[in-house]
Amino acid sequence: MKNIIRTIKTRTIGLIAVAVTVAFTAIACSGSGTTQSTTEVGIAPEKVVDYIHTVLLADRTAYTKHVVNRLTKLEGKEKPEGVVDAEATEGWQETGGVPLPAQMFRLGSEVALENTTEFTYGLISTWNINDSHKPQTEFEQKAMEEVNQTGEPYKDYQEIGGQTYYSAVYPDKAVAEACVTCHNTHPVHLERYPDKKFTMDDVMGGIIINLPVDQS
Ligand code: HEC
To answer: Which range is the signal sequence, renumbered to this chain (predicted)?
Structure first.
């Protein structure tokens, strides 16, 4: 069975590769006499931010599902019979645990910032626990407001320090009861937003991606 799946996967990848080659060839040949190299094929910024978002979300979900959840339940068995003796907690550095998914996400964004200036990403929220997640720029404030209301991504150009960015905010929703419980009872949340009680499926914040672009 596994072999069949593998064969199908290989075939699918093969087909995609053929499709991409065809697309590139078509574009390369469409220059009516002029030579057009494949490196000139641009991908629209709204597509690029979608691709980045897909990877970020996939990694965060995989970390939650395959690391954090396995600390309390291993292959369906409760923790006492599990093998990993650790806990995902906010104070993971003090307790010898592992970071919460939101912290892991932030740590990743900090590492990315050390390695590239190509683009930046992070979490933001109107009801932020961590100060660095507060919507700052005019775009961030407007985008977060829109996303809170519509539950849909918000994308636009913005300028920061003379550089133009294509920026996008994707909703981060309460997909599990744990999101709601932990945030609603967090001491910082209780102090700052005593009247804000998240319920399931609420927009709790957003994932922001900033892509520098040349507007010539
Ligand atoms: C066990 C507690 C806990 C759980 C469960 C949890 N969070 Fe958080 N969340 C936090 C903490 C603590 C932070 C601040 C992390 C940091 O310092 O960067 C945070 C940060 C965030 C932020 C960024 C804004 C802010 O508050 O700083 C968003 C958005 C967010 N969480 C959404 C979610 C969603 C959606 C879920 C469920 C899929 C979830 N959280 C589950 C504790 C939790």
So the answer is: 1-28
Cα–ligand 1 centroid distance for 34 (angstroms)? 53
The tens digit of pLDDT for each residue in 33-70 reads 444 455 568 899 999 999 999 999 999 999 998 888 88
CATH of the domain at 57: 3.30.450
**CB proximity list for 184: less than 8 A, separation 6 or greater:** 190, 197, 198
Q: What is the pTM of this model?
A: 0.82
SS3 32: coil
Domain count, the chain: 2
Q: Alpha-carbon distance 53 to 69, whole Å?
A: 22
> Which atom of ligand 1 is nearest the CA belonging to 89?
1
Q: What secondary structure does DSSP assign to 56-85, as a single string?
A: HHHHHHHHIIIIIGGGTEETTEEGGG-S--
